[in-house]
Amino acid sequence: MIPSTKTWELMDKTPAARSAQRVLWPLLGAAALLLGGYLPLLVFWRYSSHPAGVPGLFDYRSATWGDGLLLPLLALCLALLITDLRGMPKRWPTILALCIGAGSGGLVIFTWLRDPAPVVNWTMPRPHRLNLPGVWHAGFLVIASALLAGLWVELLRRLRATSKDQRRASLRSAPAAGAVAGATGYAWLAAVDSGRVAGTAAGRGSLVALGMAALLLVVCLLWAARDAVRAGVGTALAGLLVAVTVIMFAGIHGNADALVYWALVASFGAGVALASASGPSGVSRHEMAMVPALFVDLTLLVVVKNVELLVVVLAPFAAVFCSTVIRLVRAKAQWGARRVLTLEYLGGAGISASLLAACVFGLWLSEHGNRAYITGGFLLTIVGAVLGGVFLPYFKADFERLMQVEGNPALRQPDGRPGPEQAKTAAEAWPRVAGYAISAFASMLVLTIALGPSLGWKAGHAHLDWAPPWLATLGAFVVLAPAMTALRQAFTPHPRNGPRRSPTGTLGPAWWCFLAGVAACLAISSKLLADRRLWPLAIVQALLITAFAVQSILGNATWLNLGRVRWPCRAAVSAAALAVLAAVYWSLTDAVRPGNSPASPGSAIVGWLLAALVVVLVALLTAAAVYVAGGRPYLTDYPPANNVAQDLFHLLLLWFVLGWLPQFVLANVPQAAPERWSAIGTILAGFLLLFGPAFLWILENNDTHVERQRRIRNVPSTGALAQLSHASSSAARIGTLPPRIGALVQSVRHPNAHSTGSTEAEQFLIRLSGHTATQNALALTLATISAIGVIGVSAGLAPSATGLSTLPEID
Hints:
Helices cover 74% and strands 0% of the residues. The chain has helices spanning 5-13, 15-47, 61-83, 92-114, 132-161, 164-171, 174-195, 201-225, 233-252, 258-275, 285-304, 309-334, 343-367, 373-406, 420-451, 467-480, 484-491, 508-531, 536-557, 567-588, 601-630, 640-668, 676-712, 720-725, 730-735, 737-749, 757-784, 787-794, 802-805. Helix 13 packs parallel to helix 15. 48% of the residues are buried.
């Protein structure tokens, strides 16, 4: 349904209403298409009887990927574009388009029913007769055709009537690229499905209707864009690349193993990292769509086609070359003659190409049954060492730039709070940092799994009992829904000018978090208690990871705000701790070796993801509830929920690399394998050589953050803070952990209730120092309980604590 002109005008008059309406209408349109199209068909397919031997729901990608993803995406983007343009005084053209769209959809249905020689399928099991799913889908087709026709006409009318600058802005926007992707992707899938029955009158009619609609749409877009056509060329290319990605992925989905999905994650991360390298005018949204899609498309090409090794070798070069061309073309159009191919960009291009090469080479090896034992171990070790040594400086550079901005007092507000420059730098740095980290991790995982069989790896096939994690996830979602109000407060930053914003102090969200923690714990523990087996290493790992999560909740939600934990919050945190402990322990035991037999890689990874989702939901919402119940404004640079989210990101990395991965390798290298422990060490060596230096650098940066905050807040270097500020090596910095943790315990047990001014700042720094020290101690303990972990970590030990020693001195 298209909103009336009065509605749009009201939206223009009130900024708050405009913001709410801008989100509401697009979401309603997308949700209507999803709830009315794909989901009912999926229910019919799963729970109703349908004839055998005829094409079913998943034989038609336009009905699955089209109705389930591309049509809702198209409706969402069209509505977003419409809300940014002023309404038109007359509505009859849009109403006429609604009627024509409905009539066109009905005409397509009529041609299918009247076809003299139709091809039957699960919605039309007999010629000229639709069953209940067929009638439902026919009605959906008519309504969807009307809705999309109305949205397109309304958009085109507004686009033509607006100013040239507004037209250019709309055509260059992300929703415009999404609309191109949704429209072209759905048209291609529908054409492929109709082309399979092109010999029938119905198939020919559908193809003619698609062709006429596409031609008419292109002509109307040229008419509406007027003199801003060139502004939409880059948007169209971005949308087409995204559409190609969806089409290719739809072709392999369901037939590919878990290794392919991890390779796609790696290639996507490499593309994001390269695209987010800032140009003269910041990060380009078109590049953020085109470059990752290009990297994923090349990876899918290796999967779909049985290519030769030469193609695999050339794929990373092709990705970087095309990405560079995209940047140069956009630079010429937007930035003129300004230099865009900096050494930083070229270095990042080399890293992204290396990461893409690792994952596509791993895919090629897995398809060609590599059995070179020595070569496999050599490659894993060398690739891990090279990525750890070459990738890490670029990973550090972006993060250290953010830390420099954070530590510059001139860029802060008069009261010491972060300024807009810090938020802008963080928004630009984090996509690249996260992209490189995820891509390096996933690429190494692909290469490890691909080369594992040559080192004695025997992939398991045991089935998991999915009931516990699914019950825990659904239970957490349902029970935590009322606590979402606390999450909004915990994510809300203080106003740039004016006093700090205090949370409401309500206890309701804490009680809901308590119930969610208990429900999740019971759902998972029922399976663990029935198993009656204990895995000592998994118990220690789960306890350390749980302690990290609890410390993150308490530290960010109350201790760093100099507050106390109220009684209902203690119950909520205790329940959250039990839920986290159960989820982590399940992921390290029953998810990797159900019934004492190794699970398949795909099942084990999905099990870990479900457990991770439970942990993130429970920990994040519990931290938000504790913060809101405390009633004290946060004192950190960022809102508590942001800090907890960052801690949880680190927790997931520790959990996966130092917890899940060793357990999974142990389960898949049989006891009878020759030189089993050597094989396990070789499989894990490359991973830990990649992980070790970055791991220790993150720990050191944790401590550098404390020293930087001490200097910003002008807190004297005394006690445990003095020991940290004078640490001159990694070993000396690690030696400061016990006294700093002791100072945190003392501050929490005996807080100064009347502290103000410098005393309050000093107490905050003591607690921040203890907070990071506790995290570092837990992470180091988790790493060192494995001999392989010790080797990986020792590779990153530095003779000097560079993060601290490079901080400028204060006059």
